[in-house]
Design goal:
The chain has about 110 residues and is an alpha+beta fold. It has one domain. It is about 20% helix and about 20% strand. It is built from two helices and four strands, in the order αββββα. It has a four-stranded mixed beta sheet with strand order 1-2-4-3. The protein is globular and about 40 Å long. It starts with 10 loop residues before the first helix and ends in a 24-residue tail after the last helix.
């Protein structure tokens, strides 16, 4: 299990830690790389999330424990299919073609 006390020292650790902290059995996680390495953005897809008419990121500011601003979009599996089929847009600045899967699962 991810250690919630691990403070990331750089952007790559921040992305890995946030993915590990949010990982679960029924969650597919993708991240949107930031070329400036300043902002961590995740998309989490799960059958546990309800269908919506609009996708809205939940943003958090940087803190002493997580020194990077972050934003997460929670998406149902049905809505994710609509996004992939271009029937539902991602929020402005979030591009489907730029989303990446983590290189490895962070959970043991």
């Amino acid at each position: 299990m991810a250690n919630l006390n691990d403070i990331p020292r750089n952007y790559d650790e921040a992305v890995s830690n946030l993915i590990a902290w949010h990982d679960g059995d029924d969650i597919e996680i993708l991240y949107l790389p930031d070329p400036a390495s300043k902002f961590v953005r995740l998309v989490e897809v799960s059958s546990s999330f309800s269908d919506e008419n609009e996708l809205r990121p939940v943003a958090m500011g940087a803190s002493a424990d997580f020194p990077f601003p972050s934003s997460v979009i929670l998406v149902s599996k049905a809505d994710w299919e609509r996004v992939k089929n271009k029937e539902m847009p991602l929020p402005e600045g979030w591009e489907l073609t730029q989303l990446r899967e983590p290189t490895r699962r962070c959970r043991p």
